[in-house]
Amino acid sequence: MNLRQKTISGAKWSAIATIVIIGLGLIQMTVLARIIDNHQFGLLTVSLVIIALADTISDFGIANSIIQRKTIGHLS
């Protein structure tokens, strides 16, 4: 398997994982919306938005700044 095939395979698995995570989150929110009352659900969603925003700000630019090698070569 060459680098191109590995890259395509990794991208496919990443896309599948993202779709599954979004789907499970949607199911989770639907179930919670039916179980808890409106006020509690509103507090939950506001809390989740704040947590997501804090997570985004805390990781801002860190992933892009990690560099392992200057050049990309084939591994043995």
Automatic annotation (TrEMBL):
Membrane association type: Multi-pass membrane protein
Q: Pfam families attached here?
A: Polysacc_synt (PF01943)
Q: Can the keyword Transmembrane helix be found in this entry's annotation?
A: yes
Q: Where in the cell is it found?
A: Cell membrane
Q: Which UniProt keywords apply?
A: Cell membrane, Membrane, Transmembrane, Transmembrane helix
Residues passing through the membrane, by range: 12-35, 41-62
Q: Which GO terms describe its cellular component?
A: plasma membrane
Family membership, please give it.
Belongs to the polysaccharide synthase family.
Q: Which PANTHER family match?
A: LIPOPOLYSACCHARIDE BIOSYNTHESIS PROTEIN WZXC, PST FAMILY PREDICTED COLANIC ACID TRANSPORTER
Name of the featured protein: Colanic acid exporter
